[in-house]
Specification:
- Two copies of one chain form a homodimer.
- In chain A, helix 2 crosses helix 3.
- Chain A has a two-stranded antiparallel sheet with strand order 1-2.
- Chain A is mainly α.
- Chains A and B meet through helix 4 of A and helix 4 of B.
- The structure holds a DNA duplex.
- Chains A, B: InterPro entries: Cro/C1-type_HTH (IPR001387), Lambda_DNA-bd_dom_sf (IPR010982).
- Chains A, B: This is Helix-turn-helix transcriptional regulator.
- Chains A, B: Keywords: DNA-binding.
- Chains A, B: It comes from Arcicella rigui.
DNA sequence: TCAAAATGTAAAATAAACTTTACTTTTAGT
DNA sequence: ACTAAAAGTAAAGTTTATTTTACATTTTGA
């Protein structure tokens, strides 16, 4: 699965730490999701999408490996 | 977090086992998600929503406890 | 170029998702 | 009421997400 978190962060001009604080997870969690180290729970995906005023599908996309 | 999987299943008239098979998880996983025993990963949420031709936000909704 | 901020990364620990097996209870059709 | 299918549940085990701490590297701005 891929995601556009880095791009959305750039649009809002916020850091990983900023985003982490807003959705109340650790900065490393954001970093790990952003660099595809693991897949977030649906709660996190909904919160992340909400921060960006986008849908989950806008931010997260399934690929063949899923 | 709550979800409308049971309703969507009713609309499509498919069983938990059917849905489980379609998205390739165990029937117990569908049952557990449906009865809010745990939160699915984003991959599962995307697949479930896709089966129902709905968005993740249509199916899964954050509540205060999240 | 220097310093600060941001990002990358890693190991250890914990929590949570998911599977498998198996059994019980409920529901629906005849 | 009987039966079969569907749904509920539970325990044990495996895998994966998430946190915490800590340090290294990269980027950015003055």
């Amino acid at each position: 699965m891929k995601n556009t978190i880095r791009i959305e962060r750039a649009i809002l001009n916020i850091t990983q730490a900023d985003l982490a604080e807003r959705i109340k997870v650790s900065r490393q969690t954001i970093n790990a999701i952003e660099s595809n180290k693991y897949i977030p729970s649906t709660v996190l995906a909904l919160k992340i999408a909400r921060e960006f005023n986008k849908s989950v599908e806008d931010i997260f996309e399934l690929d063949e490996s899923d």
